[in-house]
Input
Amino acid sequence: MKKYNYYLATCLLFLFSITTLFAQDKEAKIILTFEKADSLNVCKAFVTSEGIPVSEVSVNLAVKRLYSNLPIGDAIATDSTGVATFEFPNDIPSKNGKLTIFATIVDDENYINTETSGEVNWGTIVVINNSNVEERSLSAGRDRAPIYFIILSLLIIGLIWGTLIYAVLQVFKIKRLGNANIE
Amino acid sequence: MSKDLENKENTKYETFTQKEYMVMKDDLLRPIEKTGRVGKIWIGFLLAVILAGIYAYYLQETKGKYETTSLRDYTMWGVYISNFAFLVAFIFTGVLMSAVLKLMNFEWHRPLSRIAEVISVAAIMMAGLSIVAAMGRPERLYHLFINGRIQSPIVWDIIVIITYIAVSLALLLITMIPSLTTCKNHLQNKPKWQMKMYEILSFGWEGTEAQWKILKRSIRILIVLTIPVAIFVRTVTAWLFATTLRPEWDSTNLGAYFISGAFLLSVAGMILAVFVFRKAYNLEKYLTPMHFDKMGQALVLMAIIYIYFNINEYLVPAYKMSGLHKNHLLNMFTGKDAVFYWSVMFFGVVMPAILPLIKAMRKPLPLTIISIIVIIAGWLKFYLIVIPGLAHPYLPVQDVPASWIHYFPTLIEMTIVSATIAGMLLIITLFSRLFPIISVWEVAEGKLEGKEEIINYK
Amino acid sequence: MENENNNSSRRNFLRLGALGGIALAGTAIANAVTDESPKTTGKKVKVLTADGKLVEVDSSHIEHHAADDDFSKAEIRQGIEGKKFIRVIDLAKCANERKCISACQTAHHYLAPVEYIKVKKMQDSELASPYWFPTMCYHCDNPPCTKVCPVDATFKRSDGIVAMDPDRCIGCKFCMAACPYSARTFNFGRPEQLKFTEEHKNDTSVANYCTTPYAQEGTVAKCDFCTDRSAKGLLPACVIECPNGAILHGDEYEDVVTNGEETFRLKKLLADRAGYRQFEELGTKPRVYYLPPVARSFPFEDAEKVQNAKE
Output
């Protein structure tokens, strides 16, 4: 009797593992919508699989950045209507206000990894501040030296060279006097 | 030449006879007339060192600095820069022994002033070469002029060095004008180009009252001008170090410290030069023990001032022993460089403040020996300022090969350094062979009682 | 390399342009030939286009092209527009793996013992614990090095980078003396390096290749935050190769830093983890922040041997 039980158990285990192994991961599609709900940015991800909305699926939200995507908040599971609602922060900087938002399903048991993206104008406009490069300073390039510095340098150089040139020119007077004497 | 002038000569100057003047003139012009065997050997030796330096520089540029020098990423400024700071120190000979003495009407400047001015000019000219030898891409030097940044201390350095060359050359040549007429009139058996040179550089000097007035005025302006310009040069050289964020160099004291060091080195250099000229050209009558006595006293004064600035530079940070300074201070006081540091301090700074206090030590020979020691210690002092300053940056030096930590100048570096010093000595030597190294008219002027203008020398 | 003569600046500019064009063409050809373009993954992704249409594209086509301008030599002095690069280094994660150092050496074609990025063992006081400290050029906002350069060969750009013009540098090494972080290196003409440069200067196939060439002989070189890679949305070599992700790189205007795997909001990260800058009191305003080694990922392990002991 016991032997039969063991045999049944292993068979069932075997069948179970085969089924899970060959279980087909279904394809899922995400559709992103963006709304504003009394000063909050709300992003809704509507997940469907083969036309049917699916629930209890974790969706991750991220916003595109230069090198990578910045994850927004935690993963949220879709509710019974297949919609995952995200609150989107309103302080993400962007060059022209446009943000590219990615919604992804990653490592879900039933569905293959999917990704969708959408563009929305929820970014805060970045103010480009190049003042430290454009203003005149001691660290700047040769065409942007501080004005006081240029004036001071020219003044000192001018005074010294002026005096020098004056003293040297005097000597030429000696020459003229000498030549005059010869004549 | 004209009867007028001849009469003036006979009537006014009895205390200094024409005969005495002729003797003096002969003495002072003899080195130009004749170069002895030793003189020729000396010039030959200097030329040999310079040629060796040029060859060494050629080797350095073709083989690359990695193989021919000890320079590495941390100690990337080596003896070229310390030598540069050393050479620039000598510009103060012109300031102290010519300008300051004249302005304060110290009579004993008279035979010294031209020696002082020549050392100044020679030093500043060679200093620039030392820097160019250190540059990675010397063929791009022109960028300094077409793309230079006025905010950079190196650009300030170039401006002030060029200015000082102009000022000191002008002072040298203008003061020489009366002497050149003497040369022109009295030298014989000299090549035509040399006589032509005297003619051109004497600017038609006749010795008339009007000319004297202009000359004296020009000289006065220039000697007053040379003082702030020399101070600028030395200070900007110090600022090459003081404008960096390095523990040893980030000091408000550095400008004054370098100037006081320059004072000391200049007096020492002056003593050595005067001794050599005295012996080599038989000028004992003009470069007298009195001059050595006075210069010895000046040496003591400059050494005392230098001790003061050294205390401020080293002992005050040592009192605080801040973490950022601790490394390099302890290294020099008790660490790897301790023997080196204390020897240089003793021989270069303390000894010249004490020994010349004894009158016997202010005789020509002992004083010259002291000066030679001070000059050598002075060169090593700048080595101690530059290299340990680089070897102890704020972040610790780790994980580098041994050659990156221990800098010791290679033969090629020292050859190039020697060549710059030989170049300076060659300029001085050649100058003394072409022009009177003692200003004839200034000495003659001093011999006259009542300090009246000398109307005409012939 | 030694053929610079005193030509007019116009000829130099034309030469620069020609070299830049050749470099571009070479890189383009190299790119076409080498396996740098991402393979098609087969994964289809839905993308919303600008006019609201939903299209499906292969995910390999979603590239991060941050800037349209090619990073040629002639544009060294212009920064990448709209970016301001910044770095955060998590000292809790650095384990002296030194992969960043070798990655940088490979990407820029230079040999040890020269290091643009160095890893130092620091111990702030006797009772404090030692920690590993990666340091490189901080691209300071108040750079002491650009102040002293006599020929404007190193300069600060609008994208935050302190860049080098390799053709202008006269090799005076004043910038090296002025940098308090010892960030700069010099090409003294080591024979092995010269040979290596000669053999590999056109080699674009190395891992994490960065187009900024190693310094010419007699000029200064340093970390450049691999800006040409940033123009293509690629992280610098050291950031990618760090096995612990200790270096986080990003754009200050985007308020984000990343090490490739984890992405953080910059200001929040610095506030939460008490980010600080090295030698803040010197006033150089570095663009690299450090996160103190608190709650370390692993205990401190001393190095077993001294690196670069060989000449």
In short: DSSP finds three helices and ten strands in chain A. The interface with chain B takes residues 138-142, 145-146, 149-150, 153, 157, 160-161, 163-164, 166-168, 170-179, 181-182 of chain A (CB under 8 Å). The radius of gyration of chain A is 39 Å.
